[in-house]
Structures are given as structure tokens and as C-alpha cells.
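Budget justification aside, the reviewers requested a transparent look at the raw inputs and outputs of the sequence design task funded under Objective 1. We therefore reproduce one unedited record. The lines immediately below are the C-alpha cells for a 237-residue chain.
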């Protein structure tokens, strides 16, 4: 199968979670060449980072037509975000809403930093598109997941490196049920099962219990969102 963009080269922001795994499959289906980048920022859910290589390897094994398009993986140190502190994603504090109306899982500046680092890496690697799994439909109120934020970043990054750089967000207007549906369209049951079993979203790092929707504690906001999306998608028949 030929890619839809035979001359384009993409860098996928790949955390090891459901959304970024779906985006990696989406990019492999469309672009001639794809690399991946992950970020270690002192996050509590380190399991995500550990899942990344397993997902890459199994994608290549189960979808050999994508394997030839998948290039190097990179992991960049973004631990400065942990040094800033104050987030339930980087500290052992209870998940709750803040006075400003945002959940304390929000890490201010995270996606801004991630895309800046990814843009610099793309420049060095000769890649022209950044792919991220941000969604304004299921975005937990995070302002750096909004479409306007990422459109502004695309302009700033392109100006900053003096070459066109596209920011693609294929999940921007999809909810979690739609994201499961997209995975099924891209790779049928095989891709859905791969994402279900080998990606990780749970904020609590729980990987002992395999639910219908995947591993997780089943109680944190990430698990609840993922479970609801899977249930809604399953009911579509």
C-alpha cells in the first residue's frame, strides 16, 4: 500500500498512550517515512515510556507494510518540567481541580515545550510534519491541547526554523470512541487489540488488571475516559 503523502516525512510525538499509538498508525498509513519521539519529564506514569518500544516492535511485526516506513525512535530529556513542580503528573499528590478550573494533572507548558523540542529535532532529521494526539473534544481542559494553540505553534515553529513545518493533530475533533473507531479503520481488530493491551494511559501506573479497554486502575480520569470511549465504540456494533 502506497502512502497518501509519498514525499512527506513525519515525526510523531509518541508517549506510548492510546492516542499517540493511534496517531503513529495514522502517520505510518499516510507518510513515506516516520520517526518517533518521546519525552521523559519525570512523569509518574513511567509505564507509558516503557510501552513505547513494545508498541513499535509489534506494529512492525503485525503490519509489515508499515515497518519499512518506520525509522528511528528518540527519547528527549524534558525533566525541567518536573523541576517546576506542582502537578499531579509529576508529584505524588491527589488528583483534583485547581482554583483556576483546570485539573492539577495539567503540566503548564508541557506541549509547548514538546513541540519546540520536536520542531528542533525535525529540523535536524529532515522531517517536515509533526504529529500529535491532542484533542479538543476529550482534552481534560488542558489549554495546550486546543486547536488554536497548536495552529499558533505551527506558525511560530515554521518561522523559528525558517522552513515550513506542519503540525497535524488527527484526533483534534474526535472523542475517545471515535479514536477507537479510527484505530479499527486503520488496522482492524489487530490494531485495536494491540493498542488495548500494549498502550498505557493510567495515571496510577497500574498494569496488573486487563479490562476490556486495556490495563489501568479503572478509577483515575484517564482510565474513566478511555473506558467510556471503548464502551461507547463497542456499542456502535
Amino acid at each position: 500500500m502506497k502512502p497518501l503523502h509519498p514525499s512527506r516525512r513525519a515525526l510523531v510525538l509518541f508517549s506510548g498512550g492510546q492516542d499517540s499509538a493511534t496517531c503513529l498508525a495514522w502517520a505510518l498509513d499516510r507518510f513515506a517515512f516516520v520517526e518517533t519521539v518521546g519525552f521523559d519529564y519525570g512523569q509518574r506514569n513511567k509505564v507509558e515510556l516503557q510501552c513505547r518500544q513494545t508498541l513499535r516492535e509489534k506494529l512492525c511485526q503485525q503490519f509489515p507494510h508499515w515497518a519499512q516506513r518506520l525509522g528511528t525512535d528518540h527519547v528527549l530529556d524534558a525533566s525541567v518540567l518536573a523541576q517546576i513542580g506542582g502537578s499531579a503528573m509529576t508529584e505524588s499528590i491527589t488528583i483534583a481541580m485547581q482554583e483556576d478550573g483546570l485539573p492539577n494533572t495539567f503540566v503548564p507548558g508541557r506541549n509547548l515545550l514538546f513541540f519546540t523540542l520536536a520542531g528542533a529535532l525535525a529540523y535536524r532529521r529532515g522531517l517536515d510534519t509533526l504529529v500529535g494526539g491532542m484533542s479538543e473534544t476529550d482534552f481534560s481542559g488542558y489549554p495546550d491541547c486546543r486547536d488554536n494553540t497548536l495552529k499558533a505553534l505551527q506558525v511560530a515553529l515554521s518561522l523559528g526554523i525558517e522552513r515550513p513545518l506542519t503540525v497535524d493533530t488527527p484526533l483534534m475533533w474526535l472523542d475517545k470512541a471515535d479514536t477507537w473507531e479510527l484505530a479499527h479503520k486503520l488496522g482492524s481488530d489487530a490494531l485495536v487489540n494491540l493498542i488495548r493491551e500494549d498502550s498505557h494511559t493510567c495515571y496510577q501506573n497500574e498494569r496488573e488488571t486487563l479490562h476490556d479497554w486495556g490495563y489501568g486502575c479503572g478509577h483515575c480520569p484517564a482510565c474513566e475516559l478511555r473506558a467510556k470511549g471503548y464502551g461507547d465504540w463497542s456499542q456502535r456494533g
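The chain has a mean pLDDT of 89. The CA atoms of residues 45 and 56 lie 19 Å apart. Computational costs for records of this kind are itemized in the attached budget.
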